[in-house]
Amino acid sequence: MYIHRVLPNLYRDSVSLMALSASLDKLPGVEQVSAVMATPANIALLHEAGLLEGEIAASPNDLLLALRGRPESALRAALEHAVAALETPIAAPPSGATRTEPVRSLQMALAHTPGANLALISVPGEYAAAEARKALQLGLNVMLFSDNVGVIDELALKRLARERGLLVMGPDCGTAIIDGVPLGFANAVRRGAVGVVGASGTGTQQVTCLVHAAGAGISQAIGTGGHDLHQDVGGISMLAGLERLARDAQTKVIVLVSKPPAPAVTKAVLAAAQRAGKPVVVNFIGAAPDALRAGKLTAARTLEEAARAAVALARGRRPPLRAAGARLPVPRLRLRAQQRYLRGLYSGGTFCFEASALLGEMLGEVWSNAPVDARWTLADPWRSRAHTLVDLGDDVFTRGRPHPMIDHRLRNERLLKEAADPEVAVLLFDVVLGYGAHPDPAAEMVPAIRKAQAIARKKRRSLAFVGFVCGTEADPQGFDRQVRALREAGVLLASSSAPAARLAASIVRGRG
Amino acid sequence: MSPLFGKSLSVLNVGIGSFADTVARCGGEALQLDWLPPAQGDRAACDALAAVLNHPAVEAANAEALARYLTSQPKLVGIGTAREVVPQLEERIILHAGPPIDWQRMCGPMRGAIIGAILYEGWADNAARAEQMAQAGEIVFEPCHHHAAVGPMAGIISPSMPVWIVIDAAGGGNAYCNLNEGLGKVLRFGANSAEVVARLKWMAHTLAPTLRAGLAALGEIELKPLMAQALHMGDEVHNRNSAASALLVKRLVPALLKSGAPAADVAAAIEFVAGNDHFFLNISMAACKAMLDAAHGVAGSSLVTAMARNGVEFGVRVSGLGERWFTAPAPRVDGLYFAGYSIADAAPDLGDSAITETAGLGGFAMAAAPAIVKFVGGSAQDALANTLAMTHITLARNAAFTLPALDFAGTPAGVDLRRVVDTGILPVINTGIAHREPGVGQIGAGVTHAPAECFAQALKALAAEVAG
Fold first, then answer.
1. Among A352, B2, B7, B350, which residue's Cβ finds the most Cβ atoms within 10 Å?
2. What secondary structure letter does DSSP report for A386?
3. Facing B1 at nearest CB: one of A98, A102, A164
């Protein structure tokens, strides 16, 4: 039987049409086929070839498809195939084409990598919200590393993400580990059963490192950004992260890490945690554990406790009691009567905040530029007084300067200044390893520590240097190498922030 | 929606490059963007872009506008006198290229051409008087685009000039363009001597009626198939029209001979048309105008429906933004200059002919025209690269216009305002270059880009429309 179709006003050159005819010829049921421009001469040819019967209403500008064969269904299918082939031009660029355009936009990038599922955004804050919104509208999850995004934008982004079933981590989200892949500032940890949702970047890093150190691993570490649990944002990202980890089969235990949220947000988060259907460890740094102890939740006072509890729960054991942490022996130091104070110089804001909470209880008056108790806010963050803890990652210090995890100069300068203060007995600090951090922090710090020791020695004083390294042996900087170098320089190293702070307090208290 | 977890992580990294390196090193997939703040950092434009990117209302509007553009069927149906066929052409009105502009701000070639048109119409009998009339506001000046018309370079259409009539058989709209005078001292470059005016009169009194008779004998000409064929013969139907002009002559000659028009007129008409490789340009422009007017006026659409220059400003119109123009200073053209001329002699970019690029032809179809690659850097690969670059700022490919050098891919079709702002890739325009003094004529040709500011402004307006 015969079948034909006229496609009005569609021009194709004769070579293309011959190629099309040849491809149609191979289809099942097709005995003979021709695709031509419908000129009178071509129509006559098709009549002669026995491909057309009767008059055809077509003009020379029309494309004519004529087929012979059986059954009719096969011919119709071949016809549809031809029409589709004509209407879908090949869009592939030829290989070896010269200059290609740089990938400027998310949409271009998505055309390039259609399977992409996360946009990691670290552009200047004023453009960050717009980029994040575009990513969400294109169906991408977002990690927004950028800071300086207003709360109105943050809320709008998080609502949009919630509507679309997407996750927004940030703004101001420094760390995450998704499916074993570190994002932003993150440590190399093994995969495992502990899932973390953290509003504080270094807090999350510390928990993942300690879980790794205990021989367990991380399923996912989701960052929310520091403002997520404020009253006006309401913890949208933490709730979303919690829900995802509750559903995630790899995750056996969930750890929540944050500074204490607004009361209403605390309530909402704890209620959601109760419903998670798996053990949840809550560490709202500085919050009284009793306030968090509800139902099946485990309240942790410190990051280290949180990590330990999570590991135990993941192994099907009861979380250890609080006092389980190993106490470091207090070294004997020849301190002068005047040397009464400790000075903490932190690159991780969470560590500073945690120390502020612990040392406040142990020592009373502990000043800081970011204290737990606002009464102890330093008037001038550049000058210490009595016991002082400084968060050097604060905007005051990072304006126009890289973060102290990347650039150690500012902290080294402050270290020498504190060493020259006759009232100082202990210098306390963190060392953060991992992707994104300085490639060799010990090499930056040891010369400054030695110089500080020399300053004290000259005045016939001795100084205690107390620190801890947040990292793993798999981090690019090498945990063991960093620890060895710091110990050789005389630094007393604790396992994490809380024991380091306690040790420092013991030293200054010991001298009474 | 892209789920996280369980699916291998694939990251698009916008910003700090080392983050992408870490992802790649740790088993994820990462693509680093070469990001710059969109719209030169204009924060309001960035926010506007974010508001309308992948917005359902805009996507739906664009699908509608694009479908209208793709299914339009421009046909050349005849030649008429502007006064009789072009809508709303009152008595003393002269149409010009580009966005609206008053006499005081017009460039040299446009002023020269307007004086020529006043003399041609007989409204004044000398150039000084003509200039006085223009100066005194005795003549109304309006853009061709406000009258469903287009014109190359100065783009002058006065009431008694002959115009091509193109109808869109699918959408029903009409489009008009004046007739191409050839090269050298011609009105569209601002020449207005007696010789120029005499040629215009001959075109009106002899050429137009002769061609009209030929077209009547031939019947309507479907323009998309003819243009598609010309693309396969090395034209991009803006700066190169040799093949399309030849195809037109091939059709016209037998019809003219059969038309019954006086033999001497037929001979003169054929000689005139065959002697001008750009004769088809004005028909190409009218066809493009018809395709794009079909797409114009879809509320919410970010499809660009006109790009045009008046020698002072470059203007853009958008399907969803009605009759508004979004303008920026017209760029100068970095091109190849005829012996004795340089960029210092050039008028800023001029003419409605960028309607061809707006329709995905001209610079967008550069891959079709290796013969004129000298204008775009010299190699055939550069021509392909220009066309490929435009795929990043367009909504689709036009299956009606295929490009052999790109394995018969369609031309990039439907310039999307949002993509222009988001990528910073600007529409490429092939263009002739006019001398800045009236009457000197064409002094070169080359490539230019539509100014970014037009698109940023239009995007802000679109975001306001969509939000409102």
1. B350
2. S
3. A164
Domain ranges of chain A: 2-87, 114-172, 176-325, 341-510
Strand extents, DSSP E, A278-399: 280-284, 298-299, 341-346, 366-368, 387-391
Task: Find the residue in B nearest to A111 (Cα).
Answer: B392
CATH code, A114-172: 3.40.50.720
Separation between Cα atoms, residue B75 and residue B237, nearest integer Å: 16
- Contact flag B33-A109 (C-beta cutoff 8 Å): yes
What single-letter DSSP state applies at residue B397?
Answer: E
Question: How far is it between the farthest Cα atoms of chain B?
Answer: 82
Q: Which class in CATH covers the domain with range B69-284?
A: alpha beta
- Fold for A2-87, please state it: Alpha-Beta Plaits (3.30.70)
What would the two tokens of residue A332 be? 């004997």
- Give pLDDT tens digits for B362-407: 999 999 998 887 766 667 888 899 999 999 999 999 999 999 999 9
Q: Quick check: A179 and B5 CB within 8 A?
A: yes
Residue B259: partners with Cβ closer than 8 Å, 6 or more residues away = B210, B213, B214, B216, B217, B266
The secondary structure of B385-396 as a DSSP string is HHHHHHGGGEEE
Measured CA to CA, the distance from residue A277 to residue A445 in angstroms comes to 45
Residue B359 amino acid letter: A
If we measure between CA atoms, which residue out of A53, A51, A81, A45 comes closest to residue A69?
A51
DSSP sequence for B209-235: HHHHHHHHHH--EEHHHHHHHHHTTT-
Q: Smallest CA–CA separation between B301 and chain A, in Å?
A: 17
Contacts B50 to A, Cβ<8 Å: 129-131, 133-134, 137
Mutate to test the interface with B, among A17, A20, A101 (most CBs of B within 10 A): A101
- What would the CATH number be for the domain defined by B57-66+296-467? 3.90.1700.10
Secondary structure (DSSP) of B289-353: HHHHHHHTT-TT--BEEEEEEESSEEEEEEGGGTT--EEEEPPPPEEEE-TT--GGGBPSSEEST
The predicted complex's ipTM stands at 0.91
User: Which superfamily, per CATH, for A176-325?
Assistant: Succinyl-CoA synthetase domains (3.40.50.261)
pLDDT at B59: 98
Rg (CA), chain B: 23
Taken in order A430, A435, A440, A444, the sign of the CA dihedral is negative
d(CA B352, CA B316): 11
- The C-alpha of A275 sits at a distance from chain B's nearest C-alpha, in angstroms, of 21
CATH class of segment(s) A341-510: alpha beta
User: What are the phi and psi torsion angles at A142 (to 5°)?
Assistant: -130, 135
Token couple for B252: 């016209």
Going by their DSSP bridges, the two strands B409-415 and B394-403 should be labelled as antiparallel
- For A322, phi and psi rounded to 5 degrees? -60, -40
Q: Which residues of A touch B51 (CB under 8 A)?
A: 133
Q: B130-138 contacts: CB < 8 A, separation 24 or more? A: B134/B103, B135/B103, B137/B103, B138/B92
Predicted confidence at residue B440, as pLDDT, reads 81
Q: How far apart are the first and last CA of chain B?
A: 27
How confident is the model over A308-325, as pLDDT tens digits?
999 999 999 988 866 545
Give domain limits for chain B: 1-35, 57-66+296-467, 69-284
d(CA A381, CA A374): 14
Crossing angle for the helix pair A497-510 and A303-314, nearest 10 degrees? 140
Structure confidence by residue, pLDDT tens digits, B312-369: 999 999 999 999 999 999 998 877 888 788 888 999 999 999 999 999 999 999 999 9
Contact predicate B312/B329, CB 8 Å: yes
Question: For the residues of A225-246, what is the DSSP string, one character each?
Answer: -TTTTSTTTTTHHHHHHHHHHH
